[in-house]
Design brief:
InterPro entries: Polypren_kinase (IPR032974). The chain crosses the membrane at residues 12-41, 61-80, 92-116, 122-141, 153-171, 211-232, 244-262, 282-303, 324-339, 345-365, 386-406, 426-446, 458-478, 490-517. Keywords: Endoplasmic reticulum, Kinase, Membrane, Transferase, Transmembrane, Transmembrane helix. The chain has 523 residues and is mainly alpha-helical. 75% of the residues lie in helices and 0% in strands. It contains 19 helices and no strands. The chain has helices at residues 4-24, 27-52, 67-88, 91-118, 124-142, 147-170, 177-199, 208-230, 239-265, 269-277, 281-311, 319-339, 341-364, 370-377, 392-405, 427-446, 458-478, 488-504, 509-522. Helix 6 (147-170) packs across helix 7 (177-199) and helix 13 (341-364) packs across helix 14 (370-377). The chain is globular.
């Protein structure tokens, strides 16, 4: 039997799927409903495999598989993106939304087939459900996709299979199956898009900042894979290995990544970046302000470590202390969203690359800062950092940035969608920066009534919903581009559902919640 928190989490996801289905109501939304039904049953098989230790790879403990909530994210994003771009009359991005939805469904089906295939005895009913859902999805794809789009979907699936085999083997206990689906599925799609755009660069289609995101993500992933293989054969903690690490990073950056970006944007990447960052006085002010906030975040880390040294070796940062960083991130993103979203887009990409590079230095113990980073960051570990990598701060950055990166700019007249869609870039700020933070702080300090089967409190959830409504009101006051067009009931329902999902999910909420709130706003 599935436990109550998993049942409630699944019910919330089903409600979101049905909401989107009611709004869109086409063959793709019907496919999403079929996928959700089969993912619910397969999730039970994955949970059983994790409990019995029968999964092929080592997944994160103290959490369920999360297959249902993760399986629906990419397909629903594609469905709502298709609908928005269809309304705007942008055919290219309407087709792109269909490819995103089809890719998400196929990757989720693949993960379901894996679970069913390794379950003993073979679950007949679940096999039939998976077969029916797969037939519906493949039939729809056959009559919806062109040959080139089918090839593109299969390419993403192939990249996903290889990345999963490599990274899940190298990084045990870092992901649940659902988190692996989200993260590796997203990275696979980015790989495919970069390859596609590199081959069709002469078409001249695309914004330089989009190319910058693609190259940065693929570059840091390839860098990590290269050094992981390299350090199998040599000790990464020596000075010689560390010098080699820094030298090869420079070689790969200047010799591979920079020329690749130059080919895509047709100009010197460094000159383009410097010109972009300092183009206006507003950008200079924002960069100075963000530098101050970054210094403040570093100050919190050093202060908490000094406090640990003076008190006890076993001292760990409290939940409230960790939420300081959420407040700092909100203070970072809100001015960027109001005054210059393109600058925020690029700055978030740079921060992601820096965060991942610093995690490589910590993980491989690269001198002179590797051991120091291990000591400083160990204070902020929680039960979700059970693997060799520390990913919670990267997930926080991703949760705040993904709504900015995934915002369909070409389908948004005057840079903003209508109705609740105008809040799409603020999805991370509302779900993680405000909702999750307020729920944790108030729930841990004043909460008394717990949601059944969880450690989360009713008071924390209710306070989070109230805080997000206040935040929406403040956004309306300070951001003149936001026009909700009386869609207040939909916004309240969206915020409430995502806050309830935060109370019941055991997945990485920093990653999951902003994406579901974005889906609801875009619908």
């Amino acid at each position: 039997m599935l436990n109550k928190p998993v049942l409630v989490e699944s019910l919330i996801v089903f409600i979101i799927v049905l909401f989107v289905h009611a709004v869109v109501w086409d063959r793709y939304s019907w496919c999403a409903v079929a996928l959700a039904v089969q993912a619910f049953y397969v999730q039970f098989k994955w949970d059983r495999l994790l409990q019995l230790g029968g999964a092929v790879f080592q997944f994160r403990t103290a959490a369920n598989s999360g297959l249902l909530p993760a399986s629906m994210v990419i397909p629903l994003l594609g469905v709502v993106m298709k609908e928005r771009c269809k309304s705007a009359g942008i055919v290219y991005f309407e087709r792109f939304g269909i490819v995103v939805a089809s890719t998400g469904m196929l990757v989720a089906l693949f993960l379901s087939v894996i679970a069913v295939g390794i379950t003993k005895p073979v679950p007949t009913n679940t096999c039939i459900l998976t077969g029916v859902a797969g037939s519906i999805i493949i039939y729809t794809m056959k009559h919806s996709l062109t040959v080139s789009e089918v090839v593109e979907v299969l390419e993403v699936l192939l990249i996903f299979v290889y990345l999963s085999m490599i990274l899940l083997y190298l990084l045990p206990r870092c992901f649940t199956p659902g988190e692996a689906l989200l993260v590796l599925g997203g990275v696979s799609f980015v790989f495919n898009q970069l390859i596609k755009r590199s081959l069709n660069v002469m078409e001249g289609r695309g914004d330089p900042i989009d190319f910058f995101l693609l190259v940065a993500v693929v570059g840091v992933v390839l860098l990590g894979l290269f050094f992981t293989v390299l350090f199998i054969f040599m000790d990464s903690g020596t000075w010689i290995s560390s010098m080699f690490f820094h030298m090869m990073t420079a070689v790969l950056g200047l010799g591979v990544i920079m020329p690749w970006l130059y080919r895509l944007i047709q100009r010197n990447p460094l000159f383009w970046l410097l010109q972009f960052l300092f183009q206006t006085q507003t950008r200079v002010y924002l960069l100075v302000y963000w530098t101050f906030l970054a210094a403040s975040a570093c100050g919190v880390v050093f202060y908490q470590n000094a406090k640990r040294s003076s008190e006890s070796k076993k001292h760990q940062a409290s939940t409230i202390t960790r939420k300081y960083f959420h407040f700092i991130v909100v203070a970072t993103y809100v001015p960027g969203l109001i005054y210059d979203r393109q600058l925020l887009y690029v700055a978030a990409v740079l921060c992601l690359a820096v965060f991942i590079f610093l995690e490589y230095i910590r993980y491989f113990r690269i001198k002179p800062f590797g051991q120091t980073l291990r000591h400083l960051l160990s204070l902020f570990l929680d039960e979700r950092d059970s693997g060799p990598l520390i990913l919670t701060h990267i997930y926080l950055l991703l949760g705040m940035s993904l709504p900015v990166w995934l915002f369909p700019r070409p389908c948004a007249p005057k840079g903003a969608l209508s109705g609740a869609g105008a809040l799409v870039p603020y999805s991370g700020v509302l779900a993680v920066g405000v909702g999750d933070t307020i729920a944790s702080v108030f729930g841990s300090t004043m909460g008394e009534i717990k949601w059944p089967g969880t450690k989360k409190t009713v008071e924390g959830t209710m306070t989070a919903i109230f805080a997000q409504i206040i935040a929406v009101a403040l956004i309306l006051i300070f951001d003149s581009s936001v026009n909700l067009n009386s869609s207040y009931a939909w916004i309240l329902a969206s915020v409430s559902l995502v806050s309830l999902l935060e109370a019941y999910t055991t997945q990485i909420d920093n990653l999951l919640l902003p994406l579901y709130l974005q889906i609801m706003f875009m619908a």
